[in-house]
Amino acid sequence: MCAKQLVLRQRTELLGALCCGFTAEPLDCVIDLLLSWEVLIWEDYHNVQGLTKPLCSKTRDLLDLVYTKGEQACSLLLAAFDQVLPEAQKAGLCLGKGHLKTGDIKKTPTSASEALLVDRPALVKKIRDHVDGALDALMEAGCFTSQDCDEVLLPVYTLSQKVRKLLDQVRFRGEGAAKTLLQYLEHIDSKPQCVKEERQLSTECIDYKKKLRSSVDSQSRLLSTYGGTGRFSLDNIYTDGILEAVQREREVTALRLQDVVGLHGTINEEADTILVSGEAGTGKSTLLQRLHLLWAEGTLLTDILMLFPFSCRKLNAEKKILSLKELLFQHCCWPDRGQDKIFQFILDHPQLVLFTFDGLDEFRQSFTDEERHCCPTQPAPIHILLFNLFQGTLMKGVKKVVTSRPHAVSPSLKQYLCKEVLAKGFSPVGIDHFVRKHHNDANIATRVVEALKANTALLGLCHIPVFCWIISKCYKELLGCGEGIPQTVTDVYLMVLKHFIQKRVPQQYRTLGKGWLQEHQEMVRRLGQLALEGLKTSCYLFTEPDLQKCSITHQDLGLGFLIHCKDFSDYADYKHFEFLHITMQCFFAALYIVLNNNDNCSVILNLFQSHCKQTAHFNHKICFAHCLKPVADDCVAEIPNQRITSEFVAGLLSQRHRNLIVQSCPAALLEKKYKQVMKCLSKGLQKHFKSIPPPVKSEKKSMHAMPSFVWLIKCIYEMQESEIAKDAVAKLEVEHFKLIYCNIGPVECTALAFVLRYLQNPVGIQLDFNSVGDVGLEQLLPCLHICHSLYLRNNNISDEGIRKLVEKGVQCECFKKVALFNNNLTDDCTKYFAQLLKAKNNFLALRLGNNKITSQGAEQLAEGLRCNTSLKYLGLWGNKIGDRGAEALADALKENTTLIWLSLADNGVGSEGARALAELVKRSTTLEELWLNQNCIRRDGVESLIEALKVSATVKEVWLRGNNLSMEDVKELSGQESRLIF
Ligand SMILES: Nc1ncnc2c1ncn2[C@@H]1O[C@H](COP(=O)(O)OP(=O)(O)OP(=O)(O)O)[C@@H](O)[C@H]1O
After folding, report:
1. Which of these, 302, 337, 314, lies nearest to 219 by C-alpha position?
2. Phi, psi values for residue 846, rounded to 5°
3. What range(s) does the CARD domain occupy (predicted)?
């Protein structure tokens, strides 16, 4: 098909490709290329870009214009799309590759202005880091006025747009300006710009920078949580958590703290907002605090001159309209002099400034991009300022780091994100480090660590830092509990409550008796009522007046323990910002619901039924919209907190805690509430299962769970009620459970195993893209006997997790497949898999792609393969087994009569490895597909494979793309053997 036809037929797709991202950058890049290839002349450029046109109109105009210019122009347009669009977006498009070689049409410029046009695409990238220098050079040479500079530096422009404006202005000013710019570019020194700016800082700016540093330093030096009895220096207690960046295609990569603000993991270069998201207590605020401290000490973010930290919770209190200047100076740090100069410096040097916003989920208004505000001096309500900062309409170029729980991150906010970082809590090593840092006494630390290791359900909870902190704080109660207790989140919070009450009891009566809850029930009820009220209005504050209303003092609350001050500076000001950690507030609310003597169970019904109504279809939008509907007046308002509260209600009503609770609430009423919850949970699960669509022909019946399913399972676990679990899944006929991207961590794994172990028939469990980790994997083991396939792509699993999996797996008759793509596996894990292969002669598929397995691992695996007579699929894509590994595997599989699929793609295999594999091809009577893409096999290696294929009756395809072969080799060799795929 000719290029003109391609442009016409794919008009909608081409339009979509340039307009879907809400940023003009792809269109601008296409235009840059077309200008440099002379498809567009300067006049066309102005016509297309027209000042106030929306993005879609510009793109339509461009497509129309190029279409009228004929076949060659269309061909170049497609080539420009090919260069600009990311691979994923090109997937469905036909861009007529090979029509034209774009390199051939690049003209040799005859003037400086022409040079700027011909090199425009490259110059846009190059000048990005030198806009200020270029403007200075142009001003000095008298080519630009300060008005020209202002036009270029308008804060609404992205950095690339500023460069394009600059280039346009230079063209407008003529050949002299173009020459000056080219000369400047030739002499750009390699020093980063900030070094120069540092030298030019006015004394006002230097003084302000010092003041800001010292204020940030004092705010972040102590761990901001719990005053009174224990204040930790952040340096002493901070423990690295797991951080991951979400990439395009929803892949994730690991990040370090220092990468949070860097380029690593960027998905949209034009945006400035970095989101750190994570569930309650995963350490988002602490991470931010650590960044602040390291900046203040001058050890990290050294290219940032001014850092402004904000707390969204505090900003809720700002009722007046204010300008950006007031926001910065009044809410962060007041300049003693030269306010205007300092503010001007901030406006002029956005790349040297960082804003951080902690706890967007606590901000009362939800993000919207409906109201634009771009003037830094114009006052506006606080939410308008914030939302425009996030979008980049205001203070484009200033990096902003925002933390939030996931539920508060709307799709409309996501489109303005430059990267998304997931805070996933502690790894098992992190838990160990944290506990040891927490306890000065090494003996106690060791006992706590051992107690955790002996109670894996609890260890699972501790990967969330706030639990780790609670457990460390209540270590005396923990060590006195005996083995295996506590098991559930409710157990942990009851332990906290007991600890807290214990502290209020006079020294001489310190040992609490069995009736401890009853003795303190009045206060617990009052706090519970307060908490419930707070949750109904999404209010997380327990302010002084609130407490006074309930005749509770801060002493009652136990300042040293329960109070969670998000920002240490708040502590001095606790009358206004006292704060109980939200999960604790949910727990008190649940206690109130359970202890309430009111016979009417409508609160419980509302609490549980609102979730149960959701169907099993995985549709976040529907689910989210449903969740946002207010459920009922007497029910808590916000869904995530509602979920946490209902889990506690289920836990408190469980038979295990009956003896404690029954002292404060009549037994008959408790029983009624218990039955009510049991009924809701069981009905909820049934509804969920009933809504599973029938399987597509020839496919397995599978269920894609959504968050409400995970919540139901967690409630059942909190109740520790095997009967509901049994009932719920007894009649379930599903062959495959899909729980991908469901925030499944160790806690959820414990609950899943508790329920799924009662399934009648074996299922596949797909948990790809979660945070299962070694601890979670261990938690899943109780349901391994009903699991035929386990999929754990991207789950931070290491060799230790595999050791435990295999230990159990060899005893489970129906466990036949495991997929562990992209985890942290090394050669160590292969000895366990070798054991599995030796012991289980019904095992079918082992997929270990994208791990860190070398030739040594392959050799160990080979030992297992030698004895195995069942494996059909073996995947080692993206490891480093090399020739030696390939030889070992090929040799071990010589006599094998089951393997039909083998992937050694991207493993550094050369011709020697290929020769060994050729032997396998020759001898195998079952092998059908061999994947050897992205290796370094040369022509001689391929020739031995061709020879082998002559004898093989089973092999259908050998994939050899991306090896060390010339075009001629490929042409010639593919002519010799059609089963080779190049
Ligand atoms: N990296 C860490 N090192 C040491 N302790 C930590 C770390 N992260 C979190 N903690 C502990 O866990 C507590 C809760 O962490 P933090 O407040 O940062 O969580 P969060 O994700 O902001 O929670 P929320 O969503 O409820 O606001 C902290 O007060 C601290 O005790």
Report:
1. 314
2. -130, 115
3. 1-83, 108-189
